[in-house]
Amino acid sequence: MITRTVSKNPRTTRGDLVNDLQSAGTKVTKATISNTLRRQGLKSCSARHVPLLKPVHVQARLKFAREHLDDPEEDWENVIWDQDD
């Protein structure tokens, strides 16, 4: 159940898994969950902290967006690509 849950939703926390298992009547610790996932070949990772945009960058993005709001689609053909190709 643990591996299946994490495979379906990789952002599931160990605390969520402990609570799910406790509601199902099984008592486990976070360490047990970590050991089980590691044995199954799943590793934990933390999301990267990205610095927030500074106000000057927000204004520059907004200015760019406003300037190019009415550009024809042909102007963007070399910039934006379709992932279905």
Automatic annotation (TrEMBL):
One GO-annotated biological process of the protein: DNA transposition
Residue ranges of the TM segments: none
Pfam families in UniProt: HTH_Tnp_Tc3_2 (PF01498)
Domain Transposase Tc1-like, first and last residues per copy: 1-70
Family matches, as Gene3D superfamilies: Ribonuclease H-like superfamily/Ribonuclease H (3.30.420.10), Winged helix-like DNA-binding domain superfamily/Winged helix DNA-binding domain (1.10.10.10)
One MF annotation (Gene Ontology) recorded for this entry: DNA binding
Record InterPro entries: RNaseH_sf, Transposase_Tc1-like, WH-like_DNA-bd_sf
Protein name: Transposase Tc1-like domain-containing protein
Species whose genome carries this gene: Pogonophryne albipinna
